[in-house]
């Protein structure tokens, strides 16, 4: 008993254009793909849908998801240190909104409660709550043992280095079952003005984090604005570095030298949001901050174009979850890859699918026989007009693990020769 979708164009996640074809899903996986002039012959008890020329593609993957920050396009909420029970409900809601918008994969960019992060991942995996596949993250680590979200960023020079405490934090997070550990190597100007350019950790602390991560089998991610933070994260073996605005020539060369193991998440979405929408929320609102953010946008554009030129695995995912940048706008990052970084829609979608699957280390992100059937059926052709993905009304089907999260089509009559 399978599911056949015929009369479709297939974008398979690789950097090749969409082609006419049909697909068959059995259980949670893609069982067969046929490209025109070949076609799939449904089996006797299959359910068959006529895709009517729509585009089938892998579900989208976002490399920088914060399910617990509190804001979606449906409900606004401030980030904060709420009880884990509340954060779990916040994350469950955000996960459903993300899936409704076609994101079947979420690589977490940091949580506030490890317990809530693990609980929602378990519920999404079991299918008891709707949400994407997840790679989980620790809370975003600040120096000095401060737990949770504390948006104050005293520079590292205000305290002595303590590599043992940083290594112990990695071990603790790994022991809780989290898959990645996130470090804020620079401050966050949107929360503490001017701190994007401050170093928060000593170099030996970050090297100790890298060693601890290798020992414990977890991976490290980092919030990096300065060239120095990019370099130390790469030296310490981090798997994913975010933002990277002020990378210098040496940092770019190091990124390129590490490109077989490293991923970059430039997060253009938050850059645009901090510039355009945050001031309306009283954030990044002073004249100096508006100027700082205009500069951050300009540097981000240049870095994004340079990473594309160098063939770096640069992935969409824009730090959505803040009130001025709510979850549900995630596909805006895809447009920004085209508008700011010069990617073609196909290159952008390849980054948001196949490369996202590589980051998550799962058999997702491609329309490929044997892969998990995490798929979207899009009305129209997103490889020609990527903006179609901004509007969930264009998602005729959202399939996760072979099961419908959304389906707007009615099955076609089973062909006579099969019945
Ligand atoms: Zn973030």
UniProtKB/TrEMBL annotation:
Domain Amidohydrolase-related: 55-402
Taxonomic superkingdom: Bacteria
A Pfam cross-reference name: Amidohydro_1
Entry protein name: Amidohydrolase family protein
Gene source species: Novosphingobium ovatum
């Amino acid at each position: 008993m399978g599911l056949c979708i015929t009369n479709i164009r297939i974008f398979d996640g690789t950097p090749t254009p969409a082609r006419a074809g049909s697909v068959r899903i059995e259980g949670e996986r893609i069982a067969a793909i046929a490209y025109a002039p070949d076609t799939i012959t449904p089996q006797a008890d299959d359910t068959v849908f006529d895709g009517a020329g729509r585009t089938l593609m892998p579900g989208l993957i976002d490399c920088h998801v914060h399910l617990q920050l509190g804001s979606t396009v449906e409900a606004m909420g401030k980030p904060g240190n709420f009880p884990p029970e509340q954060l779990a409900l916040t994350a469950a809601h955000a996960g459903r909104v993300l899936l409704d918008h076609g994101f079947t994969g979420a690589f977490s960019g940091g949580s506030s409660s490890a317990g809530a992060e693990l609980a929602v991942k378990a519920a999404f995996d079991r299918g008891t709550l709707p949400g994407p596949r997840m790679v989980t993250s620790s809370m975003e680590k600040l120096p000095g043992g401060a737990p949770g979200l504390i948006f104050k960023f005293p520079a590292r020079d205000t305290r002595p280095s303590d590599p043992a405490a940083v290594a112990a934090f990695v071990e603790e997070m790994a022991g809780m079952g989290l898959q990645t550990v996130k470090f804020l190597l620079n401050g966050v100007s949107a929360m503490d003005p001017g701190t994007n350019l401050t170093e928060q950790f000593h170099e030996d602390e970050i090297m100790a984090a890298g060693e601890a991560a290798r020992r414990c089998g977890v991976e490290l991610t980092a919030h990096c604005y300065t060239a120095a933070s990019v370099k130390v994260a790469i030296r310490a073996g981090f798997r994913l570095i975010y933002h990277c605005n002020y990378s210098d020539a040496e940092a770019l060369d190091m990124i390129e030298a590490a490109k077989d193991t490293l991923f970059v998440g430039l997060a253009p979405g938050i850059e645009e949001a901090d510039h355009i929408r945050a001031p309306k929320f009283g954030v990044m609102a002073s004249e100096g901050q508006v100027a700082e953010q205009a500069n951050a946008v300009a540097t981000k554009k240049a870095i994004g174009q340079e990473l594309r030129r160098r063939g770096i695995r640069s992935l969409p995912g824009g730090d959505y979850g803040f009130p001025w940048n709510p979850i549900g706008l995630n596909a805006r990052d895809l447009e920004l890859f085209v508008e700011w970084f010069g990617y073609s829609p196909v290159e952008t979608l390849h980054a948001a699918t196949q490369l996202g699957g590589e980051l998550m280390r799962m058999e997702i992100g491609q329309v490929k026989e044997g892969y998990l059937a995490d798929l979207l059926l899009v009305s129209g052709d997103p490889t020609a007009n990527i903006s179609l993905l901004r509007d969930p009304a264009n998602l005729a089907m959202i399939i996760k693990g072979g099961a419908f999260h959304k389906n707007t089509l009615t099955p076609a009559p089973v062909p006579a020769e099969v019945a």
